[in-house]
Amino acid sequence: MNNSEIESLFVERFGESEAPVRVFFAPGRVNLIGDHTDYVGGLVFPCAIHYGTTVVIRPTTKNTFKFASTNFDLVAELESDQVHHKYGDHWINYPLGVLQQFINAGDDIGGFECLYSGNVPNGAGLSSSASISVVTAFALNEIFSCARNLPSLIKIAQAAENDFVGVQCGVMDQYAVTMGQRDHAMMLDCETLQCEQIPLELGDYSIVLFNTNQRRELSESKYNERVVETRSALEVLQQSYPVSQLAQVSPQQLHDSANLFGPDLQTVYRRARHVVTEHQRVKDAVVALRDRNLQLFGQLMFDSHDSLRDDYDVSSNPLNALVAIACETEGVLGARLTGAGFGGCTVNLVHKEHIDNLSVAVAKDYTNQTGLTADCHRITPAQGVREVTA
Ligand code: GLA
What we know:
Helix content is 41%, strand content 21%. The protein has 390 residues and is of the alpha+beta class.
């Protein structure tokens, strides 16, 4: 659906009025390497993608908030005293969480009506939720002239997910969908928020995603469980090192402290091993990219997948099947699960001439092995959140 079609649907839904209608867009993101390192103060390497969420929005003179979507039937109309409670298990919780953050911070937010339309595949690990939260924060900031800067909007969008939706996510997704630049990936230090935009020059190679189309179950509770496990690991390691974040511990230091992790802490040890090695892999991958050593970059992707599967335990049979098929296909330099895991997508570094072979191999072997069908998406790094014209 293009922007003028969404705008027409908005008018159909909410009618005409004097107030100006504005249109905003935030992309989704794919993380190339560095997963489950953001909430432990580590490095990540994502880029924004061309799929995303568009919102058409208009202020009103009433003190009510109206939310609708072209993707789902439900329309919600909330009074100002209703915005502090979760709205069932619904997508509206993302914009609602953002709205609540603005209100709690004392920003002067009046009534509005808005229509969302998204094309980020749901539950695919491509940050459809951050895309909704960030586009909402950006739009409210603009239409109510709150004069917040982008870092502040990133914080609001992350807090909405942490405090309102209840997922203890890190800052990677909100940052990536806000700050994305065309043809660049970002090396972001999630502790300091220092970010380096690095041209993604892949020559004859492309970034290709395969969506497992696996139903994700318990992913939120398992995600929060990992956050707790990394905190336990940090407490153990603080007996030896003056660190405030798990990612500050080097792989060697963790190895040297292995004896601090008794039999009941072996799982926690493995979680920590994933974090500290993954943090290092991001550094190595960025050096490899700068050196045009895509072979090494790809190998680090495979290593990352192994670590997410074996030490962090966030992979799944469908994800492992996709990575194994990629690994056996000519012209594939690397493949790994991307995002939180428990289903979702793999990200693959593939020679342009072999993308079709890989798609054919996936179509045949993946369905044989899992009974599922995987969709293929080619990705180029896109620009972050912005106002668009219809
Ligand atoms: C989800 C979270 C992010 C990050 C990734 C895993 O996408 O929202 O903060 O933790 O999982 O890297």
